[in-house]
Design goal:
alpha/beta; 15% strand; Rossmann fold; globular; 359 residues; 2 domains; six-stranded parallel β-sheet; 14 helices; seven-stranded parallel β-sheet
Length: 359
């Protein structure tokens, strides 16, 4: 079996689907099978093992996927193509699997940009119906795909992703001390990791902070276009209590999670919620939204809050900040919960799906 894998989304500073693609490649590198060609950007180095073949690709224009990619797959003579995006060549020399993480542009168009909604509508009409199988990342997203895309139930599989391996390894005191100094972190702080935008409920988190006097918040992530996070911070009188880090190196994130007293993820809509899994893997106690897919990820290892209620969010954060015993309990539960989303299970499920199309 020879698989062609789209790894073009892997790049420095990636989030979301890029992180998912990186975890997919890392999982295949840790497994013994399958053989695979990994299409990647020339400036990116991928994990290596025997049987994984990197193929540097330069994407020339917006027509690359439909015009050039089929020829590349034909030359490589792959048995199967897997894209971690919800798109693939409509005309191609092999079966294709696409990953659909969520259908936010259809389910909540108010939470996304018009340009992305138009892109998603196009691939929903053209590419997704042509794929032999759709993989999605949660049962919640599976139900949304059935509802909004009309894909036949037998063509959808749920495969939960793992956190990157670096989040599952112990963090040294030396690394934590270095990260604290490098990023000028407070002695105690609440942490958020993800893009800063309305869908992630950034304003709700900031409003919750107003009910937690003296608590310091560290926000890690890029600001979505047209969202004025600094304006919200100033309007709520939080200047001096919010530390913004637009970019943190991936290798520094485990130490950041380990240093935080609480990780909070108040998102309004998620197809999965990878930062929750990362925080749990690092033993950081979590407060997250009770909406959409997040209870499927957190299970009984996190505290939940209604994302529409900043006061409820503040109450749950305060419970953790006030109780070292509760923080320790949830930190341990989180590690065990994250271990259920293992690379081994992920690889086994993917391999089983791949084999269906080449046997």
């Amino acid at each position: 079996m020879l698989v062609g894998l789209n790894a073009l989304l892997i790049r420095p500073g990636m989030t979301g689907i890029g992180s998912h693609a990186s975890n997919l490649v890392e999982t295949l590198a840790l497994a013994e099978e399958p053989e695979a060609y990994m299409l990647h950007r020339p400036d990116v180095t991928l994990p290596k093992r025997e049987g994984l073949y990197p193929v540097p690709v330069i994407v020339t224009d917006s027509h690359f996927e439909q015009r050039e990619l089929p020829n590349i797959l034909g030359r490589l003579e792959v048995d199967l193509y897997h894209s971690p995006l919800p798109s693939c060549p409509v005309y191609r020399p092999c079966p294709a699997i696409v990953t659909v993480h969520d259908v936010i542009p259809l389910a909540r168009p108010d939470l996304t940009s018009r340009s992305f909604a138009e892109y998603f509508q196009a691939v929903a009409e053209l590419c997704i119906p042509s794929a032999e199988l759709v993989i999605t990342v949660s049962e919640f997203s599976r139900q949304d795909i059935l509802r909004f895309l009309g894909v036949a139930a037998e063509k959808i599989r749920v495969v939960h992703q793992p956190a990157a391996r670096r989040f599952c390894l112990p963090v040294s005191e030396k690394d934590m001390a270095r990260v604290r100094v490098q990023y000028r972190l407070p002695a105690r702080f609440v942490l958020y990791v993800g893009s800063l935008e309305p869908r992630k409920n950034t304003d709700g988190l900031l409003e919750a902070l107003t009910a937690l006097p003296k608590v310091q918040l560290v926000l890690v992530g890029r600001v979505q276009e047209d969202y004025d996070v600094e304006g919200s911070i100033a309007r709520l009188g939080l200047a001096g209590r919010v530390r913004r880090l637009s970019y943190v190196r991936g290798e520094d994130l485990p130490a950041l999670y380990a240093l935080a007293d609480v990780f909070v993820f108040p998102s309004l809509y998620e197809g999965f919620g990878l930062p929750v899994l990362e925080a749990m893997a690092c033993g950081c106690p979590v407060v997250c939204s009770s909406a959409t897919s997040l209870p499927e990820v957190g299970g009984k290892a996190v505290l939940y809050a209604d994302p529409s209620s900043p006061q409820e969010l503040a109450t749950q954060i305060g419970r953790l900040l006030d109780s070292g015993e509760l923080r320790d309990t949830l930190g341990e539960r989180g590690r065990h919960r994250a271990a259920e989303f293992s690379h081994q299970r992920y690889a086994t499920e993917l391999l089983g799906i791949y084999q269906e199309f080449v046997s």
